[in-house]
């Protein structure tokens, strides 16, 4: 029986096991997908288990998407470009890291028929998922990306990879067509994102990478003002779909049953 894992810290919230086990069953595969909470010093052991064939693949989530790279033999060009790995597997006896967050984000925009080409996008957050979102936005042909992060240094580090980013002071706002919350603000349901806007923002797209809660404060306020809102659920499902394809060579169907499965 094939074994898969998602590693992270915290990991309790992860819906990856539910989704992957649903597809494993649906496609009559022999396998099991679990979650494991780790400290960084636990990564090496897991990678060795993949090398020995005791584990067939892992998903990597916060806060290990970058640090895991140092334990791998190879990474794909996409993982290299974003400096972020969310899936690991063995190929020709090498442990390979890849990134399906970029594709997941792109597919989620296609899913809602939102064409981001030539649009101005404001990205909040310079943490683990931000480089994947920035890379996807660039690949989709946006005209401008603004980036704001509480710790400015992290935004500046990202700008080294993507020089045409424009850094905005945390708390300030800009004129945008789409705004993405790629911070963890909203996960706890207490902290709020405060943007100082001169006039109310309306008719824009507000995207929150968080999917639990399904409507963060960021989305609730945006909706009240007449903006289109979308949470991170479809990005999550599509990144899992792409990972499933890598491991099982099957592109699982995303239908209403799949989407309902993750209703929280
Ligand atoms: P990591 O920082 O380890 O990559 P992450 O969950 O991928 O972890 O990223 C968390 C993001 O949410 C960061 O952009 C973080 O901002 P800092 O870089 O300043 O830490 C942001 N974040 C978390 N809590 C926040 C808060 N209370 N206010 C503003 N931003 C916050």
Provide an overview of this structure.
The protein is α/β, with parallel strands linked by helices. The protein folds into 2 domains: 2-99 and 237-261, 3-Layer(aba) Sandwich (Rossmann fold), CATH 3.40.50; 103-231, Rossmann fold (3-Layer(aba) Sandwich). It is built from 9 helices and 12 strands. Strands 2-1-3-5-6-4 form a 6-stranded mixed sheet, sandwiched between helices. It has a 6-stranded parallel sheet with strand order 9-8-7-10-11-12, sandwiched between helices. It is globular, with a radius of gyration of 18 Å. The structure holds 2'-monophosphoadenosine-5'-diphosphate.
Low-confidence stretches: none
Q: What does the average pLDDT come to?
A: 95
Overall 3D geometry? globular
The strands making up the biggest β-sheet line up spatially as 2-1-3-5-6-4
Please describe the biggest sheet, giving its number of strands, its sense, and whether it closes into a barrel: 6 strands, mixed
- Count of runs of 4 or more consecutive helical residues: 9
Fill in the CATH topology of the largest domain: Rossmann fold
> What is the element string, with H for helices and E for strands?
EHEHEEHEEHEHEHEEEHEHH
Number of domains: 2
User: What are the bound molecules?
Assistant: 2'-monophosphoadenosine-5'-diphosphate
What would you say the CATH architecture of the largest domain is? Answer: 3-Layer(aba) Sandwich
Strand content: 15-25%
How far the N terminus sits from the C terminus, by CA atoms, comes to 29 Å
Residue share in helix: 25-40%
Radius of gyration: 18 Å
Counting DSSP E segments of at least 2 residues, the number of strands comes to: 12
CATH class categorisation of the largest domain: Alpha Beta
């Amino acid at each position: 029986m094939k074994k898969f894992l998602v590693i992270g810290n915290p990991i309790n919230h992860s819906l990856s096991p539910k989704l992957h086990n649903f597809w494993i069953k649906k496609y009559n595969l022999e396998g099991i997908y679990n979650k494991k909470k780790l400290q960084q010093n636990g990564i090496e052991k897991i990678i060795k288990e993949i090398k020995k064939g005791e584990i067939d693949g892992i998903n990597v989530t916060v806060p290990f998407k970058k640090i895991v790279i140092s334990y791998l033999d190879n990474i794909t060009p996409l993982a290299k470009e974003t400096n972020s790995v969310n899936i690991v597997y063995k190929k020709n006896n090498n442990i390979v890291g890849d990134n399906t967050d970029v594709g997941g984000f792109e597919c989620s925009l296609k899913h809602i028929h939102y064409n981001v080409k030539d649009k101005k996008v404001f990205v909040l957050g310079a943490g683990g998922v931000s480089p994947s979102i920035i890379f996807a936005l660039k690949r989709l042909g946006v005209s401008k990306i603004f980036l704001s992060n509480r710790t400015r240094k992290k935004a500046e580090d990202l700008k080294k990879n993507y020089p045409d980013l424009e850094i905005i002071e945390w708390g300030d706002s800009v004129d945008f067509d789409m705004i993405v919350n790629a911070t963890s603000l909203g996960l706890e349901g207490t902290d709020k994102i405060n943007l100082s806007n001169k006039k109310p923002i309306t008719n824009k797209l507000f995207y929150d990478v968080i999917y639990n809660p399904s409507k963060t404060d960021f989305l609730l306020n945006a909706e009240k003002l007449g903006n289109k809102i979308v949470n991170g659920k479809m990005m999550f499902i599509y990144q899992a779909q792409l990972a499933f394809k890598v491991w099982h060579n099957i592109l699982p169907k995303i239908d209403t049953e799949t989407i309902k499965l993750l209703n929280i």
